[in-house]
Amino acid sequence: MAPFTVLHVCMGNICRSPMAERLLARAVRDRAGDTADEQLVRSLSAGTGGWHEGEEMNPPAARQVRARRGDPDGFLARKLRGDFIDDADLILTATADQYDYVVALRPEAAERTFVLGEFGRLLGAVDAEALPPADPKPDVVHARGVAIVEAVAHLRGDAQPQPADDLDDPWGRGDQTFQRIGDEIEDTTVPFANLLLP
Fold it and tell me: What CATH fold (topology level) applies to the domain 4-192?
């Protein structure tokens, strides 16, 4: 079985979504160890626009990833494609506009697509006791991850994301802004990894 796959989406795929991709991977590594992370959870990203395709992570974004014990090396920006959405068990967008973009491309993905802050806000209300048992094996992690996504979608119901759920675009701004965005990303990625791999 393929690992539980999380797709992070922002606009250019050089700041917010690569930070989220690599910080989730680090949070999973913290729970499962260095060898297990890629087998258990695949963390990927893409941008709604293709103008940065093939570029490395924006330097202040890479600095934030390194400062948080993540690894920015080897990252190359990609433009979002429909098959990336098809292959993902969970899609986390930086903003509500990008949520709309994903769902316009693949309407059937709406139930597994969330604004990052929205997912993090609702995650705390998930009943951990109602989830499948946890075990660091690919099929078990996959089943637990799918159950978490379904639980968060149920908690969301028909409610719209809140403006505060969006991640500001830090591109062209200082390290302080990137640090705040890194904190906001980890407010979701760390609790998610903890719930997925207790």
Answer: Rossmann fold (3.40.50)
